[in-house]
Amino acid sequence: MPLAERIKARLRALDSRAVMVIGLAFFAFGTALTLILFGSAWLALEGEGDVASMIASVDDPILAPLAVILVYVGLGALGAPQFLLQAAAIVVFGPWLGFAYAWGATLVSSSVFYWAGHFSGAQALRRFAGVRVNSISEALGRHGILASAVSRVVPTMPFVILNMAFGASHVSFTKFLIGTGLGTIPKVAVVAYVGASLGDFLASRDPMDLALMACIIVLWIVFAWWVRRALKRSGWQKAVDDAVDAPESGPSK
């Protein structure tokens, strides 16, 4: 069979959620790249209020992490995509410090929403996210660290609902935090590497920098697709998908 036909057959065999994962990955990387590329220009202000002075205003070993954490918690509650928040940290603080701040802020903001779900309980979470969130919490709770880690790689539901669902489940905070920390590392690392590679390309115009960046993006998308496929075979992803797709069993109270 010709290569083109084999590719078409593979694409037809993908289920709608796998296509969504690939589409979201392309969209997220495209948006993150746009923010990294044009972020400084968009953030520039008139007169002396440019990006440099804005960064200097939080260029403090204590204030800078706190500022990033507050932004993550506030925008996370509004449903802002994690890729955008991570890309913003890379724009402002650079790849290395931005990676550290983005990773740490993700852990703290995830913990805030975990405990919000834990203390508010399943009933309050149902009012916020719908009746089906009970099934989602049960599906997540059966796999602990694994569920917390892979849910950072494979898009399942909005960030705030995901973490609150973990809090309302039987997953201990320790397992949740370990899984979140491990699962967040590759995604933030990819965003940081892509940002650094893009900066190198703009400075050198070396096609190799652009090629390496493209390879990393493709590898990440393939990795996310492979993880989802492996989870689907194990039955865990199917349990989460069924919980997400399940009709509301009754009015939330």
Description:
The protein has 253 residues and is mainly alpha-helical. The chain has one domain (24-41, 49-245). It contains 12 helices and no strands. The chain has helices at 3-13, 16-43, 51-57, 63-77, 82-93, 95-129, 133-141, 144-150, 159-168, 173-204, 207-234, 236-245. Helix 7 packs across helix 9 and helix 8 runs parallel beside helix 10. The radius of gyration is 20 Å and the shape is globular. Mean pLDDT is 69; it is low at 10-22, 24-28, 35-56 and 246-253.
The class by helix and strand makeup works out as: mainly alpha
- What is the mean pLDDT? 69
Determine Rg (CA atoms, Å). Answer: 20 Å
The main sheet comes to: none
Please supply descriptive tags for the structure shown above.
253 residues, mainly alpha, 12 helices, 81% helix, globular, disordered C terminus, membrane, TMEM64, transmembrane, TVP38/TMEM64 family membrane protein
Topology record:
Elements: H1 3-13, H2 16-43, H3 51-57, H4 63-77, H5 82-93, H6 95-129, H7 133-141, H8 144-150, H9 159-168, H10 173-204, H11 207-234, H12 236-245
Helix pairs in contact: 2-5, 2-10, 2-11, 4-6, 5-6, 5-10, 6-9, 6-10, 7-9, 7-12, 8-10, 10-11
Protein name: TVP38/TMEM64 family membrane protein
Domain VTT: 81-196
GO cellular component, one term: plasma membrane
